[in-house]
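tool_call: predict_structure(chain=1)
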Amino acid sequence: MRFHKYHALGNDYLVCDPRDFPTWNPAPTVEQIRVVCHRNFGVGSDGILWGPLPSQQSKFGLRIFNPDGSEAEKSGNGLRIFSRYLWDQGLVKEPRFTIETPGGHVESIIKENGQLITVSMGRVSFDSHKIPVVGPEREVLNETITVLDPQSVRSQLNRCT
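tool_result:
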C-alpha cells in the first residue's frame, strides 16, 4: 500500500493517489477507510485525502474521508496537507492554484518554498437556512439550542441502567 502521511496543526492525514489503488476505484469503501485510519489496527490517521482527481474548473480535485468513512466537504488542515503533497510531488509549479472539493473550489497559495500554505475556505455563515435550524430566518448567534429536553435524557439513562 503506497501512501503519504502528513501532519498539520494537530491533524494527520493519509494522502492516497487513486492511481496507486486501482481496486479502490472510484474511491475506498467505508470499511477500507475505517481499517486504514484505525490507530491500533491500521496506519492511523484523521482521514484520507483521496486525490489528485480530475476537475473541470480547478487544477485538481480532492475527496476528503473521515476515519469513520463519511465524507467531508472541506478541511482546512486537509487542504493545506494536500497542497503540500502536490508541491512535494512536483505536480504544481505555480504557487497559486485551486482545488475542487465537494464543498466548493478552494484557492491554495504556497509560500516560502512550501513552508507556509494558506487556503481560502470561504465565508462563515450562521444563516438559519444554511445550518439549517427551524424558526424564522435569521443569523443564529448567541442562542440556546436544546438537543433533548432534560426529562427525555433522564428517561433514556434510566432505561440503560
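agent: The two ends are 45 Å apart (CA to CA). Proceeding to next step.
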